[in-house]
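We treat protein structure as text, and this decision shapes the records that our systems exchange. Because each token names a local backbone shape, the row as a whole describes the fold. For reference, a complete record is included directly beneath this paragraph.
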Amino acid sequence: MFDIKWIRDNRDEFDRGMTRRGLKPQAKALLALDASRRDALTRAQEIQAERNKLAKEIGAAKAKGGDAKALLAKVADSKDAEAAAVVAAEAAAAALDKALAGLPNLPAADVPDGPDDAANREVRAVGEKPTFDFKPKQHFEVGEALGLMDFEAAAKMSGARFVILSGALARIERALANFMLDLHTRDHGLVEVSPPVLVKDAALYGTGQLPKFGADLFRTTDGLWLIPTAEVPLTNIVADTIVDETTLPRRYAALTPCFRSEAGAAGKDTRGMIRQHQFNKVEMVTVCTPEASDHELERMTNCAEEVLRRLGLPFRTVVLSTGSMGFGARKTYDVEVWLPGQGQYREISSCSDCGDFQARRMKARCRSKGDKRTRFVHTLNGSGLAVGRTLIAILENGQRADGSVAVPDALRPYMGGLEVISKHGDKTN
């Protein structure tokens, strides 16, 4: 969300940012709506002032015993004119708010320009890609061969893009979530939160999913929404509040189920667990002062990467181009894990600095001690990690020729010492 006064004062900078986002210049149309709003408000104020003048004239006329009918008629007409001006101002304001709500955040200066992910820039690559003396399988081939991953049974009860995990795969999914939460809370200092997974319209508007991306979400019959990510409830903890700057940064982590309709994903990742309607994810959210957000983005990205380092999974980190970033982000790092079954890197975490974009929508501000002035906080979010996609990476990188899968050392304490997942019986030393 943008401040129309800032756009008025920085018209060229705003339009350059929109152009970098692949949009045509927006300032002219926005400022025209703002001018209509302000003109209508001015008319209403002028009419009110004229009516106040008429009221004095009516009082004077009555005091002299004169006829005030004509003046009273003018007052009645002025009330109608003022009401019309107020309606016009409200309509222009609503149109302006709607237009502003549909515009993405401005990209940071160091974000690479480009229309899509082809313009993303690799920052670093970590870990050695595994080599196999057999053709590596994709995760769903490994999981189905183990008899522990069932898409058919899930489809019977829920439809496409669902899965049932059982046995050791269900256990390792739970182990991954616990491992991630322990790492982030114990080693990275994040505060664990258990938030609602059903939220109101305002919460999704605050983080930017509404009104533009309603088709990507699931809505209940009583008007609540299933969250697409814990970013929504975690970020909204500070909605409509003024926080003491001495309490910042606030760093949160939460494990929740996430729900996405995958609108527009027809034909994409139709097999397997890459793109599901329901999945578990550990989400990180940071609320900080404007001065700290650049540092916090680097810190958050390192937290996501550390999960993969501990699991021994090869990955790379890329900074997204202007055409590849999400709606609310000003800068985003994608962490992509190597999937040998697919022979490519796939996103497993997106860490984004939203600046004050969400804070303006949520009215989330901060104030330093002894200062009467407030300013908008900055918000950041990132996966730490998507649990299902991490499981996919373990299955594909840890697969063996006999169909078994090696359990990463870091997860074995969470798996009762289990070292290998096998169709013929899991192995523990």
